[in-house]
Amino acid sequence: MVLVLALGDLHIPHRAPDLPAKFKSMLVPGKIQHIICTGNLCIKEVHDYLKTICPDLHITRGEYDEETRYPETKTLTIGQFKLGICHGHQVIPWGDLDSLAMLQRQLDVDILVTGHTHQFTAYKHEAGVVINPGSATGAYSSITYDVNPSFVLMDIDGLRVVVYVYELIDGEVKVDKIDFKKTTASANSAH
Amino acid sequence: MAISPVPMEPTGGALTETTLNSEDSRRFGNLRGVQWRIDLGILPSSPSSSVDDLRRVTANSRRRYAALRRQLLVDPHLPKDGSSSPDLVIDNPLSQNPDSMWGRFFKNAELERMVDQDLTRLYPEHGSYFQTSGCQGMLRRILLLWCLRHQEYGYRQGMHELLAPLLYVLHVDVEHLSEVRNMYEDYFTDKFDGFSFHESDLTYKFDFKKFSELMEDGNGSGKVAANASSLSQLDPNIQTIVLLSDAYGAEGELGVVLSEKFMEHDAYCMFDALMNGSGGAVAMAEFFSPSPFASSHTGFPPVIEASAALYHLLSLVDSSLHTHLVELGVEPQYFSLRWLRVLFGREFALEELLIVWDEIFACENCKLNKLAENDVDTSSGVLDSSRGAFISAFAVSMILYLRSSLLATENATSCLKRLLNFPDDVKLEKLIRKAKSLQALAVDANNSNPLLTQAGMFERSESAAVRGHSLSFDATSPRTPLTLVPDSYWEEKWRNLHKEEERKKDALEKQAPSIRKGWSEKVKLGLSRTESAPSSSSVDKRKKDPKLSVRRNLLEDLARQLGADEDTQSIMDDERADVKDQGVEDGQDFNDKFACTTEQTCLSGNAGSEENSSIFSDPPSPINGVNDHGNESGRSSVASNSSIDEHDGGTNTAELCAHNPEGLPLPVSDSPDDVSLEASPNDQTAAEKSTVGLKERKLLSSSKFQWLWKFGRGGGEGIPEKGQVSEANKGCSNRFDHDSVTRCSASNGGVILSSESSKGETVDQNVMLTLRNLGQSMLENIQVIESVFQQDRAQAAPAKNVLVGKGQVTARSALKELRKISNLLSEM
């Protein structure tokens, strides 16, 4: 029962001052075991804040990050799942499923977490799952101004991962849930 | 040990009945698990209960445990109550809602962590059994379930040590069973109907060719039958074991009394019975609770009472030792807490402990003083049974064992050291014999123990010699605060936040409840420190609270300026007067309103309601500026009206308010009384004004402390829940609109006069700052009032009179004016 928080594209302080208060009140230390951040924090203070929520923090570099030493991509294993992280601005066309699937095969991961488009998406294809947690602050992106703040919490339990999507729509937090199961073969199957 | 044979019903027809032997000896003496279960009341204890009865009761208790487990162990992945689509906004893992599935999950995880901390340190010397993961898992689950079931006790250290020996004896029994099984294999074969079937043979052993072999088989089964019938000639112990573990007896496998599979269930039942006392007097759980026992007359926690009973018995038995210990200041609970909470588990090795517990459990646990419960002299409820008497007798015999070394020492620490490190090489039989001899005495002592009444305790403590004996009722024993499993900090905040939000669904303006709450908390925090020194001399204390420090600074400024420069002081008054002049009528209204409201609220506070947080006025400046008037009169009228009913829209309050438009409404404070009486009202010369001002400031500061203190007492409660105060508020404001004009002119006259006597125009920057802050705080007050109004509107308030309707309207306009003033102030 591992809880993994996935978020990114906060763009603090350039495009947004802070996480929404309702999100902040939910993110309390002690419940989450890992944090995956796709990038574009942008400053160290945000990094420190995320560290207070959970000390195990994995970040990849977004194009506006001021810390230059984050890697471009990262992989880690949690439970039975292999997760891959990348910011996504490197994958062109931005947000395109096929290109992301290529990246996923390159990294050889079951779950790929990318960002940059500031829109939440979760794709499932035969090789795995591609999740985009959107922008946690609702910052505008290069593509659109209409962004709802969102992030993703994954509950990894054995061969099953439950993805909870938290979105702030009209000032209210909406939660949605998606189930993914991994067959013992390396391919994911639809649930 | 001799066992009286168990009456057996024919199972499978092979066993014969035996008569019941009405000996006194224990039935299952060598099967501690069963014996203890009987003693603790789980299994029927009457000698005539058959094995089948035992089995049935066992099965029932196990079923209960299984149901409990299914119910309480939460798997967050499974939807609650079988609902197929849980409301995700509540049931997501990050939800702060403590009632959600995940909230409970995390709470249970927290509890489990606490239990684990203790379990890892359990009986390391017997680690081979207790530290195995299977055993630890069982202990953990049992403790977790018991604590979840009994939320009021929570988990306390020591519970695991009570549970461990219980599990241990069950384990020993099961081992014994397997030994017996090995020895007497034949009797344990799976013969549910008297036939035994060899695996490879045909069921119907009719081999037409080998008829002769059949004859042999027939003989074989006959032989088996013969074996079975000789069971009754076996040792009765073995008989009982066989019967108790027959998988096909009553209730089948669930009824197998000595069963490894159900050890957890049985241990839970035993633990539960031990903690609850099974309806008897000694309930171990009571020893873990800091709150007084329900029927006790002394109002002390049961542990304290029991310790006192202990000492009382000791005094009866060996008064010299007793007095010696009391003189040294050795309170009984220092050592007896540990003794009682784990039933001497820490003082003896495991094997010896089992013997001690045999004796303890052998005693009956029914309350002895049932009829005398109303009698004030009744003893400590928790030891009020023969089992309790034995416990205290045993403890006393332990103390007596150490008599010589205790009498030899002259200081409390070494006494305690001696008592807490009980020697290893003690002869248990001696102790037990002594305890038994004292038991009768203990029962009597319990019955006639006048010392346990409160008066008695005080008496004893006074009569004893020096060194801090008075049984300190608060913190002698390491008492942990007993609360429900407390909400974590975040969950509390969530709860508060949502409570307020629910009430402001149709808020006109965005409230900032957390701000207000934070503010009130800060004030409360600061005030709890001022509570003890509500005098102006405490102005110099440096507080962390910024709000309070603002006011303190103000006071200091005032004090300094007062001492140093009369002019500036009068200038300050002038400042405030100017402020008032700017928004003359409004200002007056505002002042009056605040004054009267504080008055009202103080009155209501006096009348008993303490949730006045929203109505207290903090700004000292306006009050300060116009406080040359009518202190005395205000005070007297306030005093005379202390019993006002706020709902009454009658003349009383109007009159009151009329007399005291800007009153310093503190009937509570005593010191200002002197001051105000000396104050000469309505004197307009600068010099006198300064002295008056000084006194008033003293008055003010002390009164302000009092206000803020009262505020703080109610402040932490968040939104005031009684409508009284707000009604008073409304009523007041209503009335004020009538009286405002007259009062306005009166006080304005005073103000203008004072301004005439002012000299320079230098403005102190500090004052500006403080004024600005005051404006801010006024703003917050306004918000608070508004929230109260909305809350009242939302609530269905009972019995509101017509005043309320008008009151609301006027209050609203008044609030708008307030807002204007505060804006002005903050702009300054």
Q: What does this protein look like?
A:
Chain A: Belongs to the VPS29 family. Chain A: This is Vacuolar protein sorting-associated protein 29. The complex is a heterodimer of chains A (about 190) and B (about 850). Chain A is mainly beta and about 190 residues long. Chain A has one domain (about 1-180): Metallo-dependent phosphatases (Purple Acid Phosphatase, chain A, domain 2, 4-Layer Sandwich), CATH 3.60.21.10. Chain A has helices at about 20-25, 45-55, 95-105; strands at about 1-5, 35, 55-60, 75-80, 80-85, 110-115, 120-125, 130-135, 150-155, 160-170, 170-180, 190. In chain A, the strands form two sheets. Chain A has a seven-stranded mixed β-sheet with strand order 3-2-1-9-10-11-12, with helices on one face. In chain A, helix 1 (about 20-25) links the parallel strand 1 (about 1-5) and strand 2 (about 35). Chain A is globular and about 45 Å long. Mean pLDDT of chain A is about 90; it is low at about 185-190. Chain B contains 33 helices and no strands. Chain B has helices spanning about 30-40, 50-70, 90, 100-120, 125-130, 135-150, 160-185, 210-230, 235-245, 265-275, 285, 300-315, 320-330, 330-340, 350-360, 385-400, 405-410, 410-420, 430-445, 455-465, 490-505, 515-530, 545-565, 565-580, 585-605, 620-625, 630-640, 650-660, 670-680, 685-715, 725-755, 765-795, 805-825. The model of chain B is unreliable at about 1-25, about 215-230, about 370-380, about 450-485, about 510-550, about 565-760 and about 795-805 (pLDDT under 50). The chains are: A mainly beta (about 190), B mainly alpha (about 850).
Descriptive tags:
A: 191 residues, mainly beta, Purple Acid Phosphatase, chain A, domain 2, seven-stranded mixed sheet, five-stranded mixed sheet, 12 strands, B: 828 residues, mainly alpha, Cyclin A, domain 1, disordered N terminus
Largest sheet of chain A: 7 strands, mixed
Main-sheet strand order of chain A equals 3-2-1-9-10-11-12
What's the architecture of chain A in CATH terms? Answer: 4-Layer Sandwich
Mean pLDDT of chain A: 89
Low-confidence stretches of chain A at least 5 residues in length (pLDDT < 50)?
A: 186-191
Global morphology of chain A = globular
Output the structural class of chain A: mainly beta
Beta content of chain A comes to 35-45%
What is the residue-averaged pLDDT of chain B? 61
By CATH's scheme, which homologous superfamily of chain A applies?
A: Metallo-dependent phosphatases
Instruction: Give the end-to-end Cα distance of chain A, rounded to a whole number of Å.
Output: 19 Å
Q: Which bin fits the share of residues in helices of chain B?
A: 55-70%
Reading off the top of the CATH hierarchy, the class of chain A is best stated as Alpha Beta
Radius of gyration of chain B: 39 Å
Instruction: Name the largest protein-protein interface in this structure.
Output: A-B, 18 and 14 residues
- Assembly state: heterodimer
Domain Rab-GAP TBC (chain B): 26-364
Region (Disordered) (chain B): 1-22, 525-546, 605-692
GO molecular function (chain B): GTPase activator activity
Biased composition (Polar residues) (chain B): 529-538, 605-616, 633-643, 679-688
